[in-house]
Amino acid sequence: MAYRVHLMEPAASFEVDEGETLLEGADRAGQHLPHDCRFGTCGTCRVRVASGSVGYQEFPPGISEEEAAAGFALACQAHALSDVTLLPERRLAPCSAPARHMATVSAVRALGDGVSHLTITLPEAAAADLVYRPGQYVNLFLEDGSPRSFSMASRPEGGQLDFHLRRIPEGRFTHHRVNALQAGDLLEIELPLGNFCHHPEDYRPLLLVATGTGLAPIKAILESLMDSEDGPPVALYWGVRTEADLYLHEEIQTWAERFDDFSYVPVLSRADEDWQGRRGHVQQAVAEDFPDLSEHAIYLCGSPAMIEEARRDFLALGASIDHLYADSFTFQAQAAETV
């Protein structure tokens, strides 16, 4: 049995067959729905169900039951149970269409234990026309054409892009390829990609929560807000395992000079006895410090486990579903499985 899916923005419609997800039906019909992981984890394909109903073979981790009850669905996992009408989650600022370019490696250096800092430069022609949203990511391609996805850690400015790459032991890109890169080498890339980005229209205090190299897109967002005369209050919580994993700790402490209201709380889950700061999981530290999250715009980036728990706990503390954004680093786990 087939059902009709109506898209409100842009106006279009297509059919989904029994057993097909909304995203599969859209792909077959040539209709684009934003998506990334296709596993129900990242949340990029979240849509509003304006009418009709959908269901799941297995409830996906990239959406909470509260979000589903509020009318949200993940197109990559949801199956139509009737004719449905879909609205996009949010209207986003314009950006360039994804395109492939040959970028030049500017530098590669270690950032603390287990993280590489890669800087690349786009061709002048590509850089002149590129518009991307702080928080988006790129695909970097291996020699065989297979992609690896990494968030940009720099704000849109000129043609230079920064990345924080967690080194996966024996990983084809983050270990073997990165270790062999030198200044002047060429990398094929595709950008800009993804819908995780800053939403300046919210006009709310910002709460930014990251684990590990999930700090990268958060850094890009923060850099785009630095030195603003009317920027919102900003609270950054960064969760890692040990103090050695705080690869940007000293730099972050200087960011307060460029904001009117900025706080930074590092949280260690495996701290040694000398650590004088916060311990445990980063989402727990946020919950302890913010008993009422109803007025905040919240950005979550990092491990799927953190994001799943943070969504649940923060909604229980009054967080607005309409102002909670997440970028789950599922692609790092996928890369680890394909070394």
From TrEMBL:
Named cofactor requirement(s): [2Fe-2S] cluster; FAD
Residue stretches making up the FAD-binding FR-type domain: 98-199
Ranges where the 2Fe-2S ferredoxin-type domain occurs: 3-92
Pfam families: FAD_binding_6, Fer2, NAD_binding_1
Keyword annotations: 2Fe-2S, Iron, Iron-sulfur, Metal-binding
Keyword DNA damage attached: no
PROSITE patterns membership: 2FE2S_FER_1 (PS00197), 2FE2S_FER_2 (PS51085), FAD_FR (PS51384)
GO molecular function: 2 iron, 2 sulfur cluster binding; oxidoreductase activity
Protein name, UniProt field: 2Fe-2S iron-sulfur cluster binding domain-containing protein
